Each structure stands twice: as structure tokens, then as C-alpha cells.
UniProtKB/TrEMBL annotation:
Residues 162-334 form the DUF4872 domain. Residues 21-149 form the Butirosin biosynthesis protein H N-terminal domain. InterPro entries: BtrH_N, DUF4872. This is BtrH N-terminal domain-containing protein. It comes from the Bacteria.
Amino acid sequence: MEESAHKVRKAVRVDVRTTRHCETTALGVLLRHQGLDLSEAMLFGLGSGLSFVYWDAKGMDFPFLGGRVKPFELTRNLAARLGLDLRVRETASPRRAWENAVAPLEAGQPVGLQLDSHHLDYFEPKVHFGGHVVALYGYDDTDAYLVDTTQQGGAVSTSLTGLARARAERGPMTARHRSFTLTAPADPPSLPDAIVPAVTACADAFLDPPIANLGHRGVEKAGKLVRGWLRRAADPARDLPRAALLMEEGGTGGALFRNLYRDFLAECAESAGLPDRSRLRTGHRLYAEAARGWTEVAALVARAGETGDERCLGQAGDLLAELARLEREAMGELSRLGR
């Protein structure tokens, strides 16, 4: 992509096709620059990205439901699966952080940045999220040129001061001015060779979480606790619809990332050279059902906040209990892939 010559001081030509989740959007930009063009669902699945966490810590306004692995774990997983050279830079120095970010640009390579979305000029709504990831492809004297998700505008710009604040923010899920690049090997692994370990690793982690807040145990726990959310919320009319919005539209691809994993499994089931494609088809069928269920949960949570009707949360709790069982069954099937 090109900007006007008088405006941009340094820019790398990139394919700014955007997708729905921030980390996979940035990964897509970096990998297409390397000649690897994979769907968002494939990037998410190869990174063993699906998970679940129910997080309600002291000082939090409202519980958080997460549907993926922690920030940057997806990138590390993907690099390992595809044999990519992942170079990560972190520092406490803002000056060194900027040098780390622009050095790849000077060499003709876009760079990924992890930062807090709150300080980006274009970002809406203004919320603190320290695990946000963007691709930086250019800058001038006042602005940085980024690629973000479709819903945030795709190819966007933010002030250099805003970018510096976003990278320097400290708090949950933040990193120390993290920047990273990816370089593809001359002879990358075949997709079938990468898919099987990615699927089984994701399934095994989901089936055997270390604590009750994670994986299928976390979904089951959410089913019990969601019933009291009207009492837990400081402002139910604000907090419950916002939680539902984040599940469906907060960069998750819908259904708390279950739509992405459903599409990944569908793509895998059509790939030649994969063993046990019947297991992949079963996993796809079950995750298609689970995705519909998660969208229904979000709608029930939103309705409870809008109406104050606690019965909606009871229905959501019952559905989450069923989703815990459904996803446990799907992951049990997928954990045996290739075995």
C-alpha cells in the first residue's frame, strides 16, 4: 500500500486486507509480506488459539469472559508450527522501543506491536486492553500508519504520541514495548504436518486445564456464576450488554472465537493428506452447534441487562452447562486426531 510521497517519511508496501481479530490481523499482514497467505481461521487454529477463561478478580468492575489463549501465545504457537523465525524485542526505554519498531521498516519489513488500545486515536470504544496487537507499516513526522481489524477501520493512522502512550501503558495483559517480526523459512512445513499438533495441543489444554477458571471447567463455572450477574454488576444496564457486545463484536469473530475455530475445522476437514478427517468433521459439526449456543448466551446476557429479568441469566446458565459438555465432547474427539 502506498501513501502520498510528501506525507510518509518511511513506509513498507503491504497487503492491508483486514480481518476480525487483532492478533490474526497483524499476523496476516506480516505473513503475506513473506509470501504466506492463510485465512484468518487457519492462522487462529494453527496458533492453537481457542480457549476459555472466567476472570473475576478483586477490583474488577465486572467479570471477564475470554475465549482465546493469552495475548501473544497464539503468535508463539503459530511460529513454532510453521517454523517461522520470530524475533521479539522488549524494553523499558521508550527511545529504544521506537528504535526497535522502526529498524524492521528501514529493512523493508512490517512489524507487529502489542499495546494498549485505549491510547490509539482512532480506536472505539475507548477501553483499556493491553493485549491489543497491530501491524506497523509506516510513519512520518507526526503519525504512525497501522493495520488494525476491519471493525477499527483496517489501514489507519494514529499520532506518534498516542502510539508511544499505548506502548508504554502498564496493567493487565500489557507487555514492555513489545515489537516483533516474522520471517518464513525457505521450505516451510506442510499444512497437514502443522495442523495435527496444533489441533491436539489445543484440545489437550482445553480438556485438562490447571485451574477451574479455564477450559471446559471454566465454561461450567461460568454457567453457575452467570446466574448472579444482575447482583454482581454495579450497573446491570451497562455492564451486561457490554459483556455481551465483547463476546460477539470485541474482535472475537463472533461467538467468543467459536466461529473462527468452527471455520478452521471446516477448512481442515477439506484438506488433502490429513488423517482422521472424520474426527475433524465431527469437531466441526459440534463447534458449529457450540458457536450458535455462544451467540444465544450473549443475547440472553444482553437481554437480562436491558430488562432486569433474572430468568434470562438462568437460561444462559443452563446453556453454558450444555456448552461445557458439548465442547468437552468436541475436544475429546479432536484430541485423538492422528493417534
